[in-house]
Amino acid sequence: MNNTRQKRLFVASCISLVLTSMTFAIRARLETVFGPTGIGLSLEQIGYAFMPAFWGFTIAIILGGKLVDSIGMKKGMWLAFTSHAIGIILTLAANDFTSLFTATVIMGLGNGMVEAVCNPLVASMYPREKTKMLNRFHLWWPAGIVIGSLVGLILMDIMNLNWQLMVASLFVPLALYGYLLIGQTFPQTERVTLGVNQKDALKSLTKPLFLFIAFCMLLSASTELGTTQRIESLLRETGVNALLILAFINGIMIFGRAFAGPIATKINTTGMLFASSIFAFIGLQMLANTEVFNVFLAASVFAIGITFFWPTTLAFISENIPESGALGMSIIGGLGMLSVSLILPLMGRFLDDSMSTDVIQTISVLPFILIILYGILYLKQR
């Protein structure tokens, strides 16, 4: 593939991921707009209204992975663009539970298609640097979170403008990545390049290693996204600006993912996932005890823990089970989003009735399990 076209596709992919993650940051800000002090939804209702962002994401990722292998990555990317455009418009018009739920479904489908297309796209364009380039691609996830958080802070908290302007800001990255996609030629997926048929690709999904990583993804995704999506409620008793903490966490993630390549060459992908689990557990324990630990220090440790979870898990699948193709990476990503869609309303219910520190303590069980699982895998591979 022409180097200029390759770079253009990579930049377009990164901007589409920025839009995707901006929706998560803005959605966290909308919790206040639509919650008990705003439109009047309970935190549990908010959890259910936002749940489609994850299971819509899940459906699009899983079905999109198979679709991308069939129709190609170019059509899949334009499908993501269309869903994003419709989702933004519907969010702007939302004024109750049903309309917010519907808008979140469409936006979730668009976000899922971005993951379904861009992960195999990056892996196909950079077959010898998968961990490095997938982490560089995914550093734009926390970048989008930071941008979305700052947009919300500036427009709503500093300038006192309405929330619709915050949502409308999503049209900027939408227009940018749409422009970059015009007239571009996309490569084939790894499955097609390797000559693996759909039957063999499906068979690879039953391998014990694939099933093991799939289970781990359920836990790591819930640890990362479950916590950051409910950050405003989880830190309500600290008196610290939650969006500032969210931006701080994601700033660390940007820096970490930029240097994932050298780390991967030293301790490999399994070692990265094992170390990440340890930091995530310790970070959550510290966040649950902010009367002892500074909130920013605790957030720093937690951020180090979740930095490599998502992209390195995808890289692990692409490196160790490449015959699974776009479908394999999509299913792993889809399961991650599915787990978050399930944990959000549960967290909302606990937050309605419990101290936020107790909820954080409960969440910390997830990375603790990962420490055991990845520790066993790491020792087995050495």
Short description:
With 382 residues, the chain is mostly helical.
Rounded average pLDDT: 86
CATH topology: Growth Hormone, Chain: A
Q: What is the second-level CATH architecture?
A: Up-down Bundle
Stretches with pLDDT under 50, minimum 5 residues: none
The total domain count is 1
Helicity, as a percent range: over 70%
> How would you describe the shape?
globular
Task: Kindly report how far apart the N and C termini lie.
Answer: 36 Å
- Cα-atom Rg, whole angstroms? 19 Å
Count up the helices. Answer: 20
Order of helices and strands: HHHHHHHHHHHHHHHHHHHH
Strand content: under 5%
CATH class identity = Mainly Alpha
- Strand segment count: 0
Question: Structural class of the secondary structure composition?
Answer: mainly alpha
Structural account:
With 382 residues, this protein is mainly α. The protein has helices at 3-34, 43-50, 52-71, 73-93, 97-125, 130-138, 140-158, 163-168, 171-181, 190-194, 198-204, 208-229, 231-234, 242-258, 260-287, 295-306, 309-320, 325-353, 356-363, 365-381. The chain has a single domain (3-381), classed as MFS general substrate transporter like domains (Growth Hormone, Chain: A), CATH 1.20.1250. The protein is built from 20 helices and no strands. Helix 3 (52-71) packs antiparallel against helix 4, helix 6 packs antiparallel against helix 17 (309-320) and helix 15 packs across helix 17 (309-320). The longest helix is centred in the N-terminal third of the chain and has 32 residues, at 3-34.
